[in-house]
Amino acid sequence: MFCYFCALRKNNKTTYHPSHNSNRWPDIEFHTLRYNNIMQQKTSSKFWLRFLFTVLTIFFIPALFGILNKTGCFILFWQNDDLSAIQYESGYAYYARIPNENAVKLDLPIYLIEDNVLIDTPVLAVNQDLVKDIKEIGKGLYQLLPNNNIIFSSIDHSDPASGVHAYSVLSPVVIRMRYLLPVLAIVLLLMMTAGLMGLAAKIRKDVVSLQCFKSCLKNFAGFISILILLMLVLPWKSFFVPPVFPLTKSFWIMPLIQRNAVMFLLLGFSVLYLYYSKRKSKWIALLMGLILVINLAYYFIPERDYYGVRTDSAEYIQSYHAGSIRTPGYPRFVEDVMTLFSGSDLDYWRSEEGLKDLARREELLFKDHSGDSRGLVQIVRAQKAVLGLCFLIATVLLCFLIPPHFVFLFGEFVLANQFLGVYNNYVMSEVISQAALLLSCGIFCFLVGKRMKWSFPFLGFFCGISIIIRPSNMFILGLLLLAAILLFVQDRKKALLPILAGIGICGFFILIPAVNIFRQYHQVIFMPNQGYAAIGQTLAVMDETDLSLPKDEVAREFLTASFQQIQAMKSEGKALTQNDYVFHIALEQAKKLGFDPVTANVLFDRVSRDLVSVHKTELLAAYRDQLQLGLERTRLSLPRLPYSYLLAVFIVISLFRCSRYSLTGFVLISLHNLHLMISIMNQPERRYIWSTEIFFLMGAALIVYNVFRSEQHQTHRVRHNSQ
């Protein structure tokens, strides 16, 4: 009957009424047949749409893998190519041309094989010249050269060109384009066919077919997006490579995913689609968190047995006391780790013999063999564990401000580009400092997102811990100040007690060194090395006319002796660094005058004040040169996009659609730049500059989310936070 009335209305026919003198009824059977034909056509259209998208998915997956392989992202098969025409370089070094040029162009991992036995990839130390070590040390070291060559040495120092050993290189198989083009053509044809069917349904106003097309397209995009996410479960380094390889030229070992620009572009589109589609967001967030945890394990596993010491590591291993120039954060961490784990020998490293042993190991990297590190490798592992845990906690806290999709992108970018930690294999190399700063920034983002007043004391606690670990982390107090202002403006009376508690906790940790120094020396010295940076800069620009500037006789004597030592070192042709001016000149002369490393700060402050007033222009020029040097060492610059331009881009983007997300991102970016200026004025070393680059990326993630955020998501989050 429904078909009957629809047919009457469509043909503008009058309905039947008993008063009509017509015995002519509409042909019900005809309209019923027409309705059945229409429904059958729609059912057939739905079937073919589903079948088409199923076939498209089947062909799209190998096409996707092929494109990723062609761009160097996806590695499934490996090939073993013999090295021929091996030529002698110098020392123990030989070089040969790599047959697989595509792997070299795409910067893919390549391994050297001697007699079908894999040679371990060298793990480089800080400032290590691997080519020099290959020539002078040998022992199976190798390095890839940009001209498709590999320079290497044999394990037993034999001549590789003599044919005593067989050498080959293991490199990924890069698919040829002629094998990929047919699959791409089929995928393109299927996509065009599906698009034409959807367009035809829209023109015919076929609601059923159009809804089926949209549903199939949505399922297809969701499946591909989740597939790209699942591909990130694969590592980017081969941890499970067998030591002995078959004699075949091509074989399968372990699929790898290289996190390059193409992979991140696809990942960005996938995450944005999953964010806007709002399908099973809780399960997607759980999957992203699991992938991030797995990738964090991949980040630390490969070099878990390596350890090294820096030039100042001995100062952190020594026990803390009031006369130490270091704050108690690092020494306390070392004591706790070596007390907790067996196989550690803290007394040995604090003895005279242990200090000499540390001096011999400076700037080098070692692999622990059955506990010969005497606990140093345990310290490095504990650092990595603490850093990884703090990173995970910070990402979870960041999810209270922005959706997990953008937090996941931030975490994957940080891990893929090695922004987490600084020289992670070295004892006390800004790793613990970055961990404490990460927790501080995470709690600040949580406070901005949830406006929970009693999270402020936790922020004060970790800000204080950050400063007690490294005094130059004083810039983190900016977060504490902004959080206090935010809470006070929101609720003055109820927020007053948490604010006072947080400030008190932070002040307690900050004043620990000052209290210990005052109890022993009865002098007010805020930090045990507060005057070291200034004296190093001023001694570098002083001249002979400045020797009479100090009014104090002790200061004049110190300045005269320092000037004479500087001239003597320069006459020997030595290039003086900031550490030379501070530790080898200023501190030595202060000790000769009866000062110790802590009380020397008073002398340094008096001398530097007199010199700064005279050499302002020279100091500004020196700071300008150090700023340029620091910007050259940052990892946030690109070949065609310097850091200054990148900073300007994010600042401009943060001004559009201004919100608490963009302002929070701007604050985090400003924190990194503030720390960059502090590091440049002190020592523009890479480990100081790199330690806070992760906060620039965190701020960039907030700004990017502010650009792409959906108002529907925002309304839901506001309701959730209000509840």
Automatic annotation (TrEMBL):
Keywords: Membrane, Transmembrane, Transmembrane helix. Signal peptide: none annotated. The keyword Transmembrane applies. The keyword Membrane applies. It comes from the Bacteria. The chain crosses the membrane at residues 47-68, 179-199, 220-236, 256-276, 283-301, 385-402, 432-449, 456-489, 495-518, 643-668, 688-708. This is Uncharacterized protein. It comes from Flexilinea flocculi.
